[in-house]
Amino acid sequence: MLQLALFITAGAWFLASQAIAAQAARGLSVRLNLLPERPLLAALFFIFLLALGFSILQGLSRRRATLREVLGLPQRPTALREWTLGAAIGWGGIVLAVLPMALAGTLQFTFWTTTRSFWLLLVNLLTLVVAALAEEIAFRGYPYRRLIEAIGPVAATILLSLFFGFLHALNPNATLTSVLVTILAGIVLSVAWLRTHGLWLPWGLHFAWNASMGLLFGLPVSGMTDFSTVVQTRAFGHLSLTGGDYGPEGAIFTAVVLLIALAVLVSVTRDYAWNYTHPPIVAGGYPVEPAPPAAHVAMEQQANAAPAAVSLVQILPTTPQSRSVEDEPKP
């Protein structure tokens, strides 16, 4: 019950923090004339509030942990490698999702090469890095682990992925297909955590997926076109491939791509699953030292009780060790 209560409280804090962060970023960006940087500020405020609230909940549960452990970012030597692996899977998934549209010639590109466009590209890149981390902490960080302890990993993954998909239903141009695809994406990201017990890999996957879609190909990211500053792309064709105005995440074909990504993810994380998810092998049990047979014990006792017999044996050499002059051989 305690873990379920902590999850519900963490979820409520997540929703409140998101609203407070958005309001704070809006006020600060207006005051300092930082309108393009508003999403970045909101993501930074969001992470700060999540860290504050989740740390308090961790303290209330009387479990000692560092801030990184609370957020789901454990310090380990393979952290950068995990993040890079996740980024490679995310980038490869979007390339595969866009490939049919590119081969069919249904993509129309527009390029903007002004100085401001490249400045906005940098701002959007930082925004996507921080926003992906914020979403992973909010969904698959502290709350996810509490839910796993309450109802188990399978039920927790399904429930949290449904919540992940339904929240994205509020995005512009969302459809039933986009919600289903986002639920599947939530499952993939949850499995990434289950295979590594850390957010490094899902963070890299989440970031590269969004950045490749919005910055590299200039397509809508979950219905939002704000990230397409240098490259802007319009996709024509069947909605099952393009996703319409919502972007590739609204296409049925992207669901197939996510299933492929899931298989690849499970395959390439075998070592991480072994190193980080299996409990350590601790020696246990009872010592097994069978007593010797009674007859053997009796023989040993009899041998110890009998006086030791001492006998001297002289071993003579097979050839004489000395000889006289008369025995010298004659020539």
Short account of what is shown:
By secondary structure, this protein is mainly α. The protein has 13 helices and two strands; from the N terminus they run ααααβαααααβαααα.
Q: What is the percentage of strand-forming residues?
A: under 5%
Helix content: 55-70%
Strand order of the largest sheet: 1-2
Shape: elongated
Instruction: List the helices and strands in order.
Output: HHHHEHHHHHEHHHH
Quaternary structure classification: single chain
Give the termini separation. Answer: 112 Å
What is the tally of helical segments?
Answer: 13
What are its keywords?
single chain; 331 residues; mainly alpha; two-stranded antiparallel sheet; 13 helices
Task: Walk me through the structure.
By secondary structure, the protein is mostly helical. It has a domain at 77-276. It has helices spanning 2-32, 38-60, 67-71, 79-104, 115-140, 142-151, 153-168, 176-196, 200-216, 239-242, 252-268, 270-276, 294-305; strands at residues 107-111, 231-235. Strands 1-2 form a two-stranded antiparallel ribbon. It is elongated and about 105 Å long. It starts with a helix and ends in a 26-residue tail after the last helix.
